[in-house]
Amino acid sequence: FTGKVEWLGQHPELEAIVGQSLPVHSWKTSPYISPAKSPTPRSAAASEALKKLSEGNTRFMTNTTSVSGGFEDNHASASDICDQDPFAIVVGGSEASVPLEKIFDATPGSLVVQRSMCNIAGRAGGTLFASLEYAVQKWNPKVLVVMGESHSSVIQDAFKQIAGDKPPSTAQSSILSRVMVSALRAQQQVTDQPSGTSAGRDNMMRQLAVELNALYTIEQLLTSPIISKAVQDGSLEIHAAVLDCTTGKVEFVGEHPMQTELMA
């Protein structure tokens, strides 16, 4: 007796059992394939917003950040602090050592940034969740970006839990329970396709889990009537992204592939 738990996933014949098509279930139980990078937004406004973020990130990586109005501007006045007209919301992780505004070379007040462990959005009715709903209603941003971190320690802790690590504390458990969904799926997918070195598989699992976790946060956000209405009206687009913590580069993944079905 080893005590090891072998995770088998969801029932492969669930659609046949319930007698109806379950597209979201089918997507969740199929191998995840990361979409082509540089996704095409649906609206011109969202396209312009993502272009601003992408160009700002390029300036950050090449150390050519703008001076006028930026965080390097020593002439910014105190009145700039609360002068907000944000064009985007960024939900990011708490582990990056650089402010997310700086990663996008964003001028003060141009972004609403909410950081939490492993970029979770909290639960419906909770403070984190409500603050995002509030921001969407107040500022009508063109995009909401959920950005995962490539080397998140929370993702690593989730894999340790799967492997049978000691039980987490109550506070840790509330976070890990959200992340475990993506970690389990990533592990199952890589286990089903054994190839390469052990280190290579571990890296693939981590990358998959980070991306899937960002998409899972989007799934939670789309349960909000306020946010889903903004998406359906075309005034808001929600895109996933991943921050490479070794280079500072942000890869935009795009909207959730099952967005229409999730809002049905």
TrEMBL record:
Highest taxon, organism lineage: Eukaryota
Essential cofactor(s): Zn(2+)
Pfam families in UniProt: Pro_CA
Record SUPFAM superfamilies: beta-carbonic anhydrase, cab
EC number of this enzyme: 4.2.1.1
Reaction it catalyzes: hydrogencarbonate + H(+) = CO2 + H2O
Keywords: Lyase, Metal-binding, Zinc
Keyword Zinc: yes
Biological role: Reversible hydration of carbon dioxide.
Family: Belongs to the beta-class carbonic anhydrase family.
Name of protein: Carbonic anhydrase
Source organism: Haptolina ericina
Taxonomic path: Eukaryota, Haptista, Haptophyta, Prymnesiophyceae, Prymnesiales
